[in-house]
UniProtKB/TrEMBL annotation:
<protein>
    <submittedName>
        <fullName>Choline ABC transporter periplasmic binding protein</fullName>
    </submittedName>
</protein>
<dbReference type="GO" id="GO:0015871">
    <property type="term" value="P:choline transport"/>
</dbReference>
<dbReference type="InterPro" id="IPR007210">
    <property type="entry name" value="ABC_Gly_betaine_transp_sub-bd"/>
</dbReference>
<keyword id="KW-0732">Signal</keyword>
<dbReference type="GO" id="GO:0043190">
    <property type="term" value="C:ATP-binding cassette (ABC) transporter complex"/>
</dbReference>
<feature type="signal peptide">
    <location>
        <begin position="1"/>
        <end position="23"/>
    </location>
</feature>
<dbReference type="GO" id="GO:0033265">
    <property type="term" value="F:choline binding"/>
</dbReference>
<dbReference type="InterPro" id="IPR017783">
    <property type="entry name" value="ABC_choline_sub-bd"/>
</dbReference>
<dbReference type="GO" id="GO:0042597">
    <property type="term" value="C:periplasmic space"/>
</dbReference>
<feature type="domain" description="ABC-type glycine betaine transport system substrate-binding">
    <location>
        <begin position="31"/>
        <end position="275"/>
    </location>
</feature>
<dbReference type="GO" id="GO:0022857">
    <property type="term" value="F:transmembrane transporter activity"/>
</dbReference>
<dbReference type="Pfam" id="PF04069">
    <property type="entry name" value="OpuAC"/>
</dbReference>
Amino acid sequence: MLRIFANGVCLAVLALASHAAQAGETEQCRTVRMAEPGWNDLAFTTGVASVLLDALGYQAKSDVLGLNVIYEGMKNKDLDAYLGYWDPASVVYYEPYKKDGSVENVRVNLEGAKYTFAVPTYVWEAGVKDFSDLHKFADKFGKKMYGIEPGSNQLMMDAIADPSLGLDGWQVVESSEAGMLSEVGYQIKEKHFIVFQAWAPHPMNAMYDFKYLTGGDKFYGPNFGAATVTTQARKGYVQECPNVGQLLKNLVFDVDFENVGMGYLINDGMKPEEAGLKAITLNKGRLDAWLAGVTTFDGKPGLAAVKEKLGL
């Protein structure tokens, strides 16, 4: 009788353990609050995350906020996660929250980002491969370099002001991202010389055939202004909501993937979630890694649930 009773207790414990394993996360984890500063790369990657979370039974929310508001929101526990810490560009914003421990790094989700001068490939092949080559072709360039919005081209102006580059008398043509790229497209079509600000990820890398220039470390940093992007979360969030935390740990992107995805926003006018869904649909193979060890909100296998929900 005691043996039967003991066996019954063991079975009950196993049943409870099994139920707990399948129960999923607590109700407070169901809504996942994110934000991004209105940058197309972060709108796209946050859109991808939102599509996955919704398919897993969560309620993903994303707001467009200033960087300082995003960090204050995570510190005050009004936001849970942010997929867009650009290092080194955003170091100054993150530093106070790094010091007080209120915001934590989850993982680097993008490597290979960059930002510096670029020229069409035919210009590069003609001999303009480094910042120091620009002055040799001053007449062909019309002593002009093309930037984006006023206030965003200081590094170009710093390069012009540097006597070692011999760019005295050059000017920066300021307009907008769209205006600059329109000019780039026209000049490439006409096979003219043009130097402009370029960065990755961005659809321009797929739209135009161009090369990034070396020699700009003093202004943009080494390796063509190399940068990484990191997913961050409010302190303790990954422990409080470990299943969402696992998804955030798994989500990693690459420049080519984001170049195409941002094109859905910029060129096709899609909303972030629409762009995210299209990108996931065309890259189903990424789901295995993204959803490894991830369940639905109520504890069921995540990969199968997402594929079924999205019709994949």
